[in-house]
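queue> pop job 88
queue> type: inverse folding (structure -> sequence)
queue> payload:
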């Protein structure tokens, strides 16, 4: 996992913010990704998980670095919940 940022996409860049999939769709367009199953969506809130599910991402990951607890994130049915984002390296 690198430290460089390839793109920054915010709700201001799209018509519909989370939980709509518009930000993920825009990122896919920017990088020429045609199939959302190739996308991993990681987030620290339920609305992040909903966004990933609405975009049909291949993997939706909850991360416990935000305000929501493991139990709260599990309500949104992520594929996995991790303690911190750097734990992704072991997952992928």
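queue> result:
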């Amino acid at each position: 996992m690198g430290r460089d940022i390839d793109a920054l996409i915010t709700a201001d860049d799209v018509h519909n913010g989370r939980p709509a999939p518009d930000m993920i769709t825009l990122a896919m367009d920017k990088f020429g990704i045609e199939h959302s199953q190739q996308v991993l969506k990681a987030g620290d809130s339920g609305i992040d998980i909903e966004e990933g599910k609405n975009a049909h991402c291949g993997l939706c990951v909850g991360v416990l670095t935000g305000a929501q607890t493991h139990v709260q994130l599990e309500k949104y049915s992520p594929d996995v919940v991790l303690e911190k984002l750097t734990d992704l390296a072991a997952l992928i």
